[in-house]
Amino acid sequence: MSETLLRELIAGLAHFLLAILATVHILLTKTEVRAAIGWTGLVWLAPLFGPVSYLLFGINRIRRAVGRMRQVRGTHHTEHQVASRKGQGGAGDSPVPAAWQPLVTLTDRISAEPLEGGNHIEPLLDGDQAFPAMLEAIAGARHSISLATYIFDRGVVADDFVAALAAAVTRGVEVRVLIDGLGARYSRPPIRGELQRRGVPVASFLPVRFPLPNPYANLRNHRKILVVDGMIAFTGGLNIRDACLLASRPAFPTRDIHFRLRGPVVQHLQDAFVFDWRFTTGERLAGEAWFPPVATAGDMLARGIADGPDETRDALLLTLLAALAAARRQVRIVTPYFLPDPPLIDALRVAALRGVDVEILIPERGNLRLVQWAQMAQLQPVLRGGCRVLLTRAPFDHSKLMLVDGLWVLLGSANWDPRSLRLNFEYVVECYSAALASQVDAIIAARREGARELTRADLDARPLWRKLRDGAAWLLQPYL
Predict the structure, then answer these.
(1) How far apart are alpha carbons 113 and 118 in whole angstroms?
(2) Residues 364, 452: contact at Cβ < 8 Å?
(3) Is 223 helix (H, G, I), strand (E, B) or coil?
(4) What is the value of pTM for the model shown?
(5) How many CA atoms, within 13 angstroms, populate the side-chain half-sphere of residue 359?
(6) Nearest one of 402, 397, 398 to 429, comparing CA atoms
């Protein structure tokens, strides 16, 4: 037997064995038939390349982390005050209209938190309003500060936050800062070293070893949460970076929206941070410094909803589906990335066909080209179903909002894409309030000014090369 033939036989046998192993793994772990068929075809039809690609990109590596998360979460729910708060909220003081009860029932079952009254939530536009409010709250902290963020970029804004957090530590305030392991790498050197040097306790959520930031990486903590003294909280889409401070005229400005929250819902956000911190560091945060007695601050009904690729998976997807089913008049969606799963596309089309006015605002020019191209390939069925899509002008809009029937508002960190829906850890807040809905509606109306409506004719008029490019990017949707 020649040496060449021997090498070919060895390579063929190696491919056969790897393909068998990969197929077994696919059959035991994949839950979507299309993904299973696609990967099976690749591992058998692409010698060696297919099995290696599956090893690198097809295996869900969250399982080990999920195992640890479930252990921590079980202990957390047993010990934590959330269990004693369940059912004690003020939802009964301001009952939700009967038409909304199915949505309330669903979110009751998928969230660890009760729907509670006595809250006040106010929007803060861009870093120009949000950063000063957040820094003011940090400066006034007396007992505790919890800060979780995806990106904590070096720059003028970061310097202000580091100084404020360090000053709080000096005053004797208990401070904890949690930065996503990938988001921390968006600036060099990472800000973590500076925080440690200033005496601020800081940790990285699921650290990564890859030397460069990768916006398409999975399993990231995308939550943005700041809680001060357990009494005031901030959440939304805002990262800590100079690009969000529009008044400073950054090179790549990013429009966004954050919210300041007071009332019982603050403890929902605190609980999410405490769990993430405990999972990351093993430290349990408890007591009145972190969870003071619940105080009412307004008349809004609100609830926090955690979502992630552990046992909270699909909480966001189910909430969106239920909200679309509950809509009777109007749905307004603002998102920087619009790559919804087929069930969500169908739900949007069904809502529009029922006569609901469905309007989706996305940036005309995004910051991630592959996502931009892929979503263009996916908009045709949405438009065909009767939804309206508006392309907002620069600066790039990173806001995440959903408004239904002038009463229900969903705010937080989540986008309408596979990453937020299945692969990242997100946090959103639902609120039943005509007053907040009116404010959000006015914000969306301002974003609508100057926007261009996208039509089916516009999509059809794209050159063939663009349609092919967008279609090819759409094939990568599970990884975008």
Answers:
(1) 15
(2) yes
(3) coil
(4) 0.88
(5) 20
(6) 402
The number of folded domains in the chain is 3
- Give the integer Cα–Cα distance in Å for 51 and 55: 6
Shared-domain flag, residues 148 and 283 = yes
Range of the domain at 20: 3-59
Place of tokens 């929206």: 257
- Inside any domain, residue 85: no
Residues 146 and 257 in one domain: yes
* Residue 60, helix vs strand vs coil: coil
- Domain assignment present for residue 371? The answer is yes
Domain annotation covers residue 26 = yes
Contact (CB, 8 A) for 272 and 427: yes
Same domain, residue pair 356 and 383 = yes
Asked whether residue 83 is domain-assigned, the answer is no
In tens digits, the chain (480 residues) has pLDDT values of 577 776 767 777 887 888 888 888 888 777 777 678 877 888 888 887 888 887 776 776 555 565 666 667 666 666 664 444 444 444 444 578 889 999 999 999 999 899 999 999 999 999 999 999 999 999 999 999 999 999 999 999 999 999 999 999 999 999 999 999 888 788 888 999 999 999 999 999 988 765 555 555 667 899 999 999 999 999 999 999 999 999 999 999 999 999 999 999 999 999 999 999 999 999 999 999 999 998 899 999 999 999 988 666 689 999 999 999 999 999 999 999 999 989 999 999 999 999 999 999 999 998 888 889 999 988 999 999 999 999 999 999 999 999 999 999 999 999 999 888 888 899 999 999 999 999 999 999 999 998 999 999 999 999 999 989 998 888 777 666
